[in-house]
Amino acid sequence: MSGRSRGTRYTAVVRERKDDLVLVVEDHPDMRDALAEILSLEHFDVVTAEHGAEALRILATLPSVPRVIVLDLHMPVMDGFAFRRAQLADVELAGIPVVVLSADDAAARHARDLGVSIAVNKSNIEHLVRAVYAHA
Predict the structure, then answer these.
(1) Residue 87: which of 47, 130, 53, 63 has the closest Cα?
(2) For a disulfide at 80, which of 21, 26, 46, 73, Cβ 3.0-4.6 Å?
(3) In 10 A of CB 27, how many CB atoms?
């Protein structure tokens, strides 16, 4: 695990909008760090989590909810499906839009059944950035 991969906060130097916090939940450290870096270059503040359980702990400590959650589906400890069910059960978190990341089209279709905003293939970073902007 890299030094900045767990719960790291990235803050863009130049901000275009106020309160644009994004939570990235991804178990692969390199992918998590790359997503955080790309979104911070797009002027978002980014908080990261390694799995769903860590994301719920982070959400409980934030002073305000993020504008959008970028969520991997297949993770250890608590996967994206279990996280999404827990999110929907919490009245304070249920309204946060979720952009699902997946390399598995069948899993992405199943995630839509959980009311996610959009499912994006992990290899299409441009589509991910557009989805975050659309939901932030």
Answers:
(1) 53
(2) 73
(3) 19
The token duo for 135 is: 């939901």
Summarised one tens digit per residue, pLDDT across range 13-66 is 333 444 589 999 999 999 999 999 989 988 889 999 999 999 999 999 998 899
* Helix/strand/coil (H/E/C) assignment for every residue in 63-132: CCCCCEEEEECCCCCCCHHHHHHHHHHCCCCCCCCEEEEECCHHHHHHHHCCCCCEEEECCCHHHHHHHH
Short-list 90, 3, 9, 21, CA closest to 52? 90
User: Which structure tokens are listed for 12?
Assistant: 């863009």
User: Could you say which DSSP state residue 62 is in?
Assistant: -
First to last CA, the chain: 29
Q: Say if strands 45-49 and 9-10 run parallel, antiparallel, or are unpaired.
A: antiparallel
Region 73-80: mean pLDDT is 88
